[in-house]
């Protein structure tokens, strides 16, 4: 067994405990600073599910120091102000219909209200991913400390290194809880509740069982770290296998659909303008019906403007759900696709406009469009 300097170990442990205590005090100050009586009263008028969801997401995303009720009330008020301002501007702008103005206001309110929650959810998933990446290294370090003769609690506290990022913060929080009198096993179970990671949850369960049973914890942690690394390698191999599906989704949503809609829009515009310029819409339709073909009968009901708006709507919806599907296939969580959704929508619309302009400039002169 490797000999360790007990005095140096004691000083290191005291430094970690002091830092953990200082972190808790800092969180309390932030919670007091972010508290607002007005927003807090607003949040109490809302359904309790708003506060419950926000509290869970703030905890998972590492922002539990924020005052939950004030945060919920602030988001709600900002959403109302933004929706009213947008609806008013649209009413005095291009949209004069009161019903459509109301729809715009409701849509903006829903987007403004849900966006912060989605951002917190994405941040929670990223944080969990960061923890899972460094977790094997942290377990190996704890295992090495235990095998060097440290007690499990000291081995864990001294593994809180800056390179572990979010995991270091969680270890410090658990250390602060034990300083306040919380048992070590309970402190670790609370740590798993602050990170939305099933891998961390199972690892903490193994550690707790090892501490309670008095088994060879060092060997158990080392084997767990090896299994997590094997799982990560398997996950990377799966990512390589689904690359073809990802490419198909990107091509269909961002390239294929905009290209086809741009061509169909030009086709309708060409037929409509040709029939209008020639003044033969009724005559051609009658002759076509006599021949059993109704090629131009739709030109009076489907206008190029309608098809343009319809194409923009279809491309936006298609690319949005393509991003969600890609997030589900690649990461196992459709919410991860929300990060890519704005880019997918913008690229899809850009390709649609580029193809439409190219076709119009290339063939429009020949048909008078």
Automatic annotation (TrEMBL):
Residues 139-263 form the Type II secretion system protein GspF domain. It is a multi-pass membrane protein. GO terms for cellular component: plasma membrane. The keyword Coiled coil does not apply. It is found in: Cell membrane. It holds the Pfam family T2SSF. Its main location: membrane. Keywords: Cell membrane, Membrane, Transmembrane, Transmembrane helix. The chain crosses the membrane at residues 75-93, 99-118, 242-267, 306-329, 341-359. It comes from the Archaea. This is Type II secretion system F family protein. It comes from Candidatus Naiadarchaeum limnaeum.
